[in-house]
Amino acid sequence: MTEPRSVLVTGGNRGIGRAIAEAFLAQGDKVAVTMRSGDAPDGAFGVACELTDPASVDAAFAAVEEHQGPVEVLVANAGITRDTLLLRMSEEDWSEVVETNLTGSYRLVKRAAKGMLRLRRGRIVLVSSVVGLLGSPGQVNYAASKAGLVGMARSVARELGSRSITANVVAPGYVETDMTAALPEEQKSAYQAQIPLQRFAAADEVAAAVTWLASDGAGYVTGAVIPVDGGLGMGH
Length: 236
Hints:
Layout: E1 6-10, H1 15-26, E2 30-35, E3 45-48, H2 54-68, E4 73-76, H3 91-119, E5 122-127, H4 130-134, H5 140-160, E6 165-172, H6 178-181, H7 185-194, H8 203-213, E7 225-228
Parallel strand pairs: 1-2, 1-4, 2-3, 4-5, 5-6, 6-7
Helix pairs in contact: 1-8, 2-3, 3-5
Keywords: Oxidoreductase
Pfam families: adh_short_C2
GO biological process, one term: fatty acid elongation
């Protein structure tokens, strides 16, 4: 059994983030989750964090460091959508999504990197989306924010690689969460028809890719984009 590590998962109270947090907990790691509402998974340390506020991000890291030591594994998962067609998309629809999903991730990675550089090791996993690679009508803002994470991770991988810090991206497709459960049946069927595996992912299938990237076995994987999308985005 390897030593338990200090793990931070943003948006770890529901959906994919919760599954990721639970997967690290099952491995015996010390897990902190940020959330805006709801409860932390059993055994996780819950901390409030507003990604659009640099001071809030700094305070969250300080609380986590005090509770379980410097963050060795960062999973930037929290994100929002404001879906609407381009010509109806307001300045706020655009800036809120980019500020939370992309700029928020920049703040997390920058703050985590300080501790990782001192430790001379670390794992950064950014949760993107197949939409960031494939595009999606009504999601110009979301797709742009999620595509931006790929450039961020690859630049960070080049910058921090000499200190044994890896930076990778997981790009989920459609996942069974509260969000997809609310879709009309016809829409679900239409989406599934486009997916070679003909089904949505379980959240723990995304979590499995994240925990693998943070494992010893993935020590030589950095700057990669791992799709967990049932084959939907092949070739991207």
